[in-house]
Amino acid sequence: MEHRKRPEYVLEVLADPTCVKDIVRGILHTIFFHRYFPSMRPSSLEVLDLTLPVVADPELETLIETRVGQLVRQLSSTSSPSGGSRGELGVRFFEKRRRKASGLGGWLTGTGRSEEEICWEVWKLKITLTTPRTETGKACPPSDTGQYADLLRERMTLLRAEAPALQKTAMTIVKIVNRDKDHIPPITTSETNPFPYEILLNPRAEYDGKSIGFFS
Asked: How many whole angstroms separate alpha carbon 16 and alpha carbon 67?
């Protein structure tokens, strides 16, 4: 089979602490909606007044919830009054290929008939937590109404900016999947999901796209 170049797509995500979980969930489901090829029951979720698609697969939903929860805990544990806490999620899709035999010995030992899984697409979500400049991480004193009002105004400004940013990210995903199709492997199995996948928290940068021996 001809070698196909594996594309990598990077999505920059800015999110307020109160919305980061829903925003990241929405982006992940949007990616998988366009890369999950079995038939599925239509479903959706509302994030910041935007309707985003959902892949109603229990195994995938559990994995997304687990990884997003890990990300939120990491961002919370490293947050500071000045904001800027960062994290990354990586999504990788694989195809199954029959491993080539390594001479007669491979066939005798059975390794010549085993399968390997090759990564054919990578998405990277780089998430930055945004925090109002007037927020100190502590509750504002009831008497300090001016500071409290400034905090509310800044938070509302952040929230208003997040909806169009999320919409832009969703449209970017749609544009990419409609534009880049030649690298998608042929479906050669009758399995429910022909392409294994994984979602990783803070994936290693040195990953070279070759087959690996662990999956989420």
From this structure: 18
Q: What residues are paired with 15 via a beta bridge?
A: 129
Provide the token pair at 173: 């995903």
Burial class (CB in 10 A: 0-12, 13-18, 19+), 20: buried
The pairing of beta strand 86-98 with beta strand 115-129:
antiparallel
According to DSSP, the residues that pair with 52 across neighbouring strands are: 45
The position carrying tokens 């905090």 is 151
pLDDT tens across 186-216, in order? 887 766 788 999 999 998 754 544 433 322 2
pTM of the model: 0.79
pLDDT bin (cut points 50, 70, 90) of residue 107 is very low
For tokens 């079995």, name the residue: 38
Considering only CA atoms, which of 5, 21, 12 is closest in space to residue 123? 12
